[in-house]
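Dear colleague,

As promised, here are the two records you asked about, laid out in our usual form so they can be pasted straight into your sheet.

NAME FIELD: protein one
SEQUENCE, THEN STRUCTURE:
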Amino acid sequence: MTTYAELVQTVSRRIGDSANETFEEETVKDFIQDGLAEIGRVAPERFQEDIEPLADTLSYALRSADFADAVPEIEVYRVEVWDGSVTPQRAVKWLQPMSSHPAGLAYSNAGWVLWSGTLELPNRVVDFLIPDTHLIRVWGYSPYPPVSEDADVIPLSNELEQALILYCRTLAYDALLSDRALFTQWQVRSNNADMSPAGLMNVAQIAGEQWRKKAKAIYVIRETPG
């Protein structure tokens, strides 16, 4: 598993700036954070979350432990009620999404809905739930949790990590192309003296094509609510 600090070193090396003479570590970390967000859009994390229901409660924030300071762009495709008091646990009820109703007939008590990262349940479901017995089990897609500490593990598979590195390269090359002074600094200090502006444009174009090809390869087709 790759840590945040290790990935910073890898990205710095792959953009020809191993000593961070042109791009400071904080800038490389910005590239990585942008890359995590982009990977989460193309190939989001699949998650399953069990929620312990509370009496007379209609709303439950999803993935709140991983996204304490922000509302994640979550997609939910299945919600069920399980009996957690037995072994093995047993599914007892499938919950219908509001989106399954014809347009114009859906209303708040028709089914569950996801709103701003919060699962909203209809009253008839809440009346059915038994606290300390039932679990609300949710399946869906989520962005990847942000990393902040050098020792944090990057929550990606090896393939997705390689895609993230490709995306970071495109960000770095775009930055060099848009700032001649930054390019000159990179060209001299990073031992890239043989790279001309035209050569960099070619390298940036190739990196962009590699990223677009990889993005198509890793793209996740989402299941629809139902």
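NAME FIELD: protein two
SEQUENCE, THEN STRUCTURE:
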Amino acid sequence: MKPPIGRLAMRVEGDNWTAYWAKPGTMEGALWLGSIRLALVQSTERREAFIALMRDALEVLFAEKFGPVDSWETTPAPETERSGSA
């Protein structure tokens, strides 16, 4: 398994849930991928669909340079990144 080159970071920012690609362990230089209103992702099904869309987007963006994604590991955000509403 390849070492991680980055991660999909999901953050609450105001009334939105925002997806970023970020380097492991930091949000510095994170690449904004997309946002959705929190009201639209209250159901697990819609929340998972948004996450899947953002993962697909990352695979398209990085496929040529890094190859296919082997797996998506889900881990809680570091405490320093947990801000509630930014």
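A couple of things worth noting about protein two: The two ends are 34 Å apart (CA to CA). Residues 44 and 50 are 10 Å apart (CA to CA).

Best,
R.
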